[in-house]
Known about the structure:
By secondary structure, the chain is of the alpha+beta class. It has 4 domains: 9-56; 71-137, no CATH class; 153-312, Nucleotidyltransferase, domain 5 (2-Layer Sandwich); 335-387, no CATH class. Helix 1 packs parallel to helix 10 (282-298). Helix content is 32%, strand content 16%. It has 10 helices and 12 strands. A hairpin with a 5-residue loop joins strand 10 and strand 11. Strands 1, 2, 3, 4, 5 and 6 form a 6-stranded mixed beta sheet that branches.
Amino acid sequence: MPWKTEATPMELKAEFVQMANQQSINMSRLCRRFGISRPTGYKWLRRYRKKGLDGLHERSRRPNNSPNQTPESIEQIVVEARRRDPGWGGRKLHHHLINLATDGDLSIREDQVPAASTITRILDRHGMLADPGHASRRGSWTRFERDQPNELWQLDFKGEFRLDNQAYCYPLTLVDDYSRFSLAVGACADQKRQTVQSELRTVFDRYGLPKAILCDNGPPWGAGLGWRDWGPFYTRLAVWLIRLGITVIYGRPNHPQGKGKNERFNGTLQAELLKHEQFADHNQARNRMSGWRDRYNTVRPHEALDMEPPATRYRPSQSSFPDELPLVEYDPDATTRKVTSAGKIRFQNQSFTVGKAFSGYRLELRASSQSHRYDVYFCNQQIRAINLN
């Protein structure tokens, strides 16, 4: 299915070739996802392997005609690079400038690119370090990640901000846990279920379905009522995701570190784009966020990925978004109960709350290993457990 997106042709090419360049990629499926023919896909891949991202569009290369650059000229290259990406530090800029020099896109050679520590000092001299010593204060932590792309996506709304037209913008961010690939940065006008579902449909069309999505307990994916003794309250959006075969995982209340990669991504979005720019309206915000997301995925060196961009590690899911939602079905001999409009079920003459989001659906009850305890399932996801008196 062709992409339903406002991304530029160059942005689409950059994502495609970095995914297609991975081993064991299904080229036919990838081309279908991007709405292009296989010959076109292989043509882009050949150009990418020969010339890098620069080979994907027609433009002249800057010749290496100044082999004896002065230090001032080299500093200017560093300063311009920092202005282009104001949130990047010495290590990222060093890696990025090495790539540009290797591809012939700089007027200096690869061996003339300053070391990361030198770049940091250049930025300091030019007053371009907003938070000197920031990196040293981060401390160390242990990273946890899934083993493959699309095993887990992390979903969240970044804090809202006001546009020039006085409307609020709510950035919706979605990150793949394994690759740190940004699947979406949506400039939403609200946080309603219909808005989020529309954004997710576009992502699912483009990248397929994940096995699981991790989110917090707030609306629209959680009811925002906190946990009771049996867990979170589900919403209609969560029900829709579960029907698609996606496991919905809620982070523990008041523990944002559970969604650390998404929290870190939101901080990067703030540091590299939102703190430096003001947008006239949602359309301008959407276009700028799309451009920044493309650069984040395909150009920006990521320290957790050995200074490679996330697109080199991500590949689309093999599970495609269906034309119609699957039916809610259980085995013929399964014990099921229909949820009332009040969000309750009755079982063995007792009433249990399961959530209004499931009203009208049937749930399955499975006896557990503990006496008098039953696990309650919607489709293939356990949503709570009940204990009989």
